[in-house]
């Protein structure tokens, strides 16, 4: 405190309480010295000395606390590759120690960049840093809420999990920051760039070391060893992290046994699905591996050479190589030609689709226009008369039969002929002529037309 004013004791006369059971008079006053002390007085003295208002003083105190906290972070050891990971507001405010299975244990300790690669020393060092920063007493000193110790408890829980090899393995087994997706058989791209990182990712779950994918020039025995190892892959993933908690306080033994049985069944199912996923990965890789394709071609060539030798046919290696190159070129050309044909077919289909769509729209417009012409001409009734509802319905239905039976071009031509003549009788005759045409070719059954006959 930087106050310059001296603290002056205050003398106040206070009555002394009587110890008798039934006092009748007050005791005589005595002198007591009161000295102003405590946080409230210290803040008052600080404001008096600095001449700041309450808001200004609060802002100054907050800035000083932030400066001290930043200085504390800088002075903390950053050795062993742990460093200082930023803490998001969401992480600090939503982490709940009661729902610990939903927590990202590595993010809680600031080890998101290391995760399963973090050593036990790094985990303990990261825990120490978090404890120093988030201890309730430290929060109170920085003006925080000392009663909100949820994140502090999450830090303790994270150490409890990650410092125990068995519990850590359970968490690493389901770490959701790692993708379980695998390339499918149709995935395009460089084989080694597509599959290499996936096998590296999956290899950490192996109970025994497994070989890496290798490169395009890997020898045959190395490639075969790779696939043999992965077809016999044994994963240590247990999926126990997903187990439903057993209520140890429950006296119902049947409930406990059911929960244990259900957990065991769910773990077995997840294990089965994960093994199938890895097997599918290996199957897809084997089918797409260009090295295996080359080995099969070499085997085929060797069988052919052996077969020809048995028949007394000598094969010039140079000519065989030339023939193979010609065949490969022909296959490449055929493949390229097929790609062009597929592209042209796709383009033609798109054009046909657009043409059909345009024809459909034009047909719809023509149908509406023909119906409107019939309506405008009073459904071909004599002048001064009103068509009945039955006549209207019959004519509209028969117009639909005609429009649906004619080709789109014929429907458009009918509309054109109706537009081209002002004579009502000629208009009706054009429609009747179209109806007769449909009857003649059998597109419409006899007797369907009653109005336009």
From TrEMBL:
GO terms for cellular component: cytosol. Residues 1-27, 45-96, 250-390 are annotated as: Disordered. One of its GO terms (biological process) is regulation of translational fidelity. Residues 78-87 have a biased composition (Acidic residues). Pfam families: DnaJ (PF00226), RAC_head (PF16717), ZUO1-like_ZHD (PF21884), Zuotin_N (PF26185). The keyword Coiled coil does not apply. Keywords: Chaperone, Cytoplasm. Residues 59-77, 250-277, 290-307, 316-326, 333-360 have a biased composition (Basic and acidic residues). Signal peptide: none annotated. It is found in: Cytoplasm. This is J domain-containing protein. It comes from Wallemia ichthyophaga (strain EXF-994 / CBS 113033). The lineage of its organism: Eukaryota, Fungi, Dikarya, Basidiomycota, Wallemiomycotina.
